[in-house]
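[09:14] KT: can someone run the structure on this one? pasting the chain below
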Amino acid sequence: MKYRKLGKTGIEVSVIAFGAWQAGGPPFWENTDEKVSIKAVKTALEHGINLFDTAPIYGFGRSERIIGKALKPCRKNIRIATKCGLVWEAEDMKSVNNNLKPKSIREEVEESLRRLDTDYIDIYQIHWPSQGDPIEATMEELLKLKREGKILAIGVSNFSVELLSKAMETATVDSVQPKYNMLEREAEDTLLPFCNEHDIGVLAYSPLASGLLTGKYSSSSSFDDWRGKGNFGIFREDTIGEAYKKVEKLGKTAENIGVSLKHMSLNWVLANSAVTSVLVGIKEPVHISDNVACLERPLSIKEITDAQKI
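[09:31] RB: done, structure tokens below
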């Protein structure tokens, strides 16, 4: 495993991180046996992964509880990242509030600490920005939590450069979590250069485009989870067709290079100098070794350039 410093924090994280969204199960994903999820976490530890990313909204806290349970024996040696701002209205998980008011953040962090069975969170992130809540008050509350030792680093996710700059006027932002992969490259325009310039850590999520860049799916594939609804992200009806065409071309490029499409995709994201770590969604223990194996064969500058042309 390889490790990189997270911005200016001094926190060292594995370049491949464990994304625990699927461990939460419904309503986004099908149910996953808790024992399988815990085994996947332990397998990740065996391969040197030390960063585990979760959120309260993943299964009404189920993902956090599983991560906390699995990591309890080795808490001091790993890094836990979780989030705030998206709150289920009820346990039926049908409606979500975007709430970044200080009182709500305070309540959320205490609940996350309880579910994770820990007394501090390494990286605490705003999940999504809220237009209704002033970012200054939100950042002030996060700064208080950092001073109290409940969190060690402040992160944001899905932020524009404009909002990120505004947040930084109140408190230091240690990390940013944007969607970034070979099919969705909007972060390259301004966000990644900004993070590079200001030495802000970048935890890139969806590096495999929610499975499209694993090479397992084609235009004839169907999904029973959120991807099959055709109304979110690259899986929208107006974008998925073009995405599959690009995946086919990228698959041929990977074949010519002599690597799998998955390995090419992960290495391509990691090759960006702004990226600290890639958050890979992991469901089964068997996926761990394959993901980590990509580090054995990094891409050359020419291979990166060729892939970018598609």
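[09:33] KT: thanks! The chain has a mean pLDDT of 93.
[09:34] RB: yep, looked fine to me
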